[in-house]
Amino acid sequence: VRKICCGSDHTLALCSDGAMYAWGLNNEGQCGVGTTHDVMRPTRVAALPGLGAGAPVGAFAAGGRHSLLVTAERPEFTGKEQSVRGLLYAWGCGQGGRLGNGNTTNQCSPTLIEPLVTPNRRYM
User: Looking at residue 56, what is its pLDDT?
Assistant: First the structure.
């Protein structure tokens, strides 16, 4: 395990191979494993849309009822049409618009936050 963070009732861990795992209370999808069933053992977080499993993780955080992830650059991703650096993903409780995806719907898997995606512009 390279990094770990804790929300109110769930935990996220990033392993040295780049895989992210989650466990704990998951009633609003905050673990990002594709369901709302509580997660009793470390379970791999669903793949990031458009990037797949093993996408480069730069930073991540576990909120009270949601989770966030920002991608990082990796050599094998350079030279592509759009950089993967600084893409923001969110999942879990959407109440009050906290996920930033334009609605209040809970998300059980990582969701790309589209307004922050602009070609040739980096926000992070």
Answer: 80
Kindly state the tokens that stand for 76: 């094998």
The pairing of strands 66-71 and 20-24 is unpaired
**Residue 32 near residue 7 (C-beta atoms within 8 A):** no
Model pTM? 0.82
Residues in contact with 78: Cβ distance below 8 Å, sequence separation at least 6, in sequence order: none
Supply 23's token pair. 């466990």
Which residues, at least 6 apart from 103, have a Cβ–Cβ distance to it below 8 Å? 94, 97
